[in-house]
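QUALITY CONTROL LOG
STEP: pairwise intake check
CHECKER ROLE: data steward
CRITERIA: each record must contain a sequence immediately followed by its structure tokens, with no blank fields

ENTRY 1 OF 2
RESULT FIELD BELOW
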Amino acid sequence: MNSFLRLTAVCALLTAVTTFLLWLLPRYYPEMSTEMDRAMLHVNLWYIGRQWVSFIHIFLALMAYLGAAILIWQRSRGLALAGFMWFLLWGFTELLGVSVLIFAVNNTWRRAYPQADEEMRTTLQQNIDLVMQWWDALFFLLLVFFLLGTLFYGLGTWRGKGLEKMISILFLLGVPLTVFITISGYTQVVWPGMIAGAIYPVLQPVSRGLLGLWIWSSGGSDKEFNQKKAFSE
């Protein structure tokens, strides 16, 4: 168990990097004022790179959340199980959306757009618009899943001390952050998005990094971990 927890801790530390990249890379996107500009995103390394970073990030994050669930299980099996279930749903939803963006929208439709005639361009653009509307709805759903997973993990670590208490606070701070992102993305209210945009690049990477340190330090040796588990039972 110790070696597996160490693996999940490393995954959590790597998500600190991928989380920051997910925030940073869009800053290098070109200006997109026309349909052709958007169609050419399929050859933009910053844009395509972000899609692949997002794809890899989800697997790393799920491993990290599994490691956290194992530790939370010692105190609250219900919160650990429910929290990881919400994160699984988040991960599946985002993987589905990102995969469609990579392979259908960019690798197929946008790739074909520059060489297509006007009639075909109209069809391709309709396909892209439809998928983007579908992704917009899915993104709302994954935000809800992420909010619930964050809330349950925050409650599950609340009774901890030291680094675990800090992890709990950071998880719980992720709840209003997710609410602000949701409000900004799906209403006409602007100020929550401004707050989220300022907090996200600091809070989320730091939270993931400290999560990795907590998992690493809390796993202990196999003997120590089993003793902790037996005591909690």
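ENTRY 2 OF 2
RESULT FIELD BELOW
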Amino acid sequence: MSTNDLKGSGSMFRLNGKNYLFAFIMITSLFALWGFANDITNPMVAAFKNILLITNFESSLVQFAFYGGYCFMAIPAALFIRKFNYKKGILVGLGLYSIGCFLFIPAGIAMAFWAFLIAYFVMTCGLAFLETTSNPYILALGPEDSATRRLNFAQAFNPIGSLTGMLIAKEFILKNLDKATEGERLKMLDADPARLELIQQSDLDIVSLPYLLLGGVVLCFFIVFFAVRLPKILAADSGVYTVGQTVKNLLKNKRYVWSVVAQAFYVGVQIMVWTFIIQYAEKELDMPKATAQGYNMLAMGIFVTSRFICTFLLKYLKSSVLLATLAIAGGLFTLGAIFLPNAPFVEGQYAGAYWGLYCIVAISACMSLMFPTIYGIALKGMGDEAKLASAGLILAIGGGCVMPPLQGLLIDKANWFEGLASVRISFVLPLICFIVIACFGYWVYRNSNKAM
């Protein structure tokens, strides 16, 4: 779908005689905001490991705190918008998001890792509000038969924010951190701790500054959304179902329950692949962090391109079929990351093919369709129940809370096969995730004409 399609397909945004294109554009602008937050944060796992001299497992607690905010706030956010409306949910989300960003300043001054974790947690409590609000809102801004395509199109702007976040992380954070390696810093810890502390403080200031600026941008969004009028589609609770009855209905809906499970595994695989590509490149090729982040940006560029292509293909293919096919392809690329060789990295010159690394980059093409498609499958025909149902799908983002620390633990500890590095072995977790998603897509396809 192109921008011309967007202008010409007014029926996608017209419901009961009303045109919701302006509201669609406003809400879609928020998708880039949480994309930025996600992907400026992923490289920080490797950065904090080097700055604070902690293990892969400890540094991956960044993702535990980041995605833990989604788990904690998803249900309260859904109950809030059920009682009030979508616009108020957006305002609460933007407010918490900006506060979390501003908390990076005291965290940096204190040089306390736990304080950064709190800042990430508060940030994503805001993101949970934004996602719990925006996704079902987009689905409601037009006819139901085009809802999944509408959400896929809106989600296509999420990677634009992600690419911007990656660029900021690469050019303004990773490149500007002190060049002292982890080994050199460990020696300083004993020989010259005062110098190490100065380096750490400088590095943490570099990490914190982009988040401070981001907080200012989010605050501007808060002001704009406070002033603008948005349609109150599904904003008021119909009163037909109580919360308890809605939960019972959702738990009886097999399609919805398995969608939540699949979404948890999808988010897990996405965060693992985009977080640990840097560790993979460092350990396997001895590649600098900033250079490795360039491959992460290439992966995101492929992700963006694939999202638009897959949105187009949804006009002709069942979403479940495309989902299962891409999950199988993702699993095959993951096997390539585990087993295919990589030539050694040489600064300033091309030394050979990095086949395993190329496979990790290619995985992003397979992931592009998954989140919005699973979301659309889950909420199809939900009506007003979509408010609480959306919370379950945002709660599933908790897959990104649990799985990255597990992969970090494997990198620290795994030594299963002689000659196969622990960072390669760790990618067995993304492989398992793709198997689950492929099975879900096939199950939906087989049951698409049956009551679920």
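INTAKE CHECK: passed for both entries
DESCRIPTIVE NOTE, ENTRY 2: The chain has one domain: 10-231+244-446.
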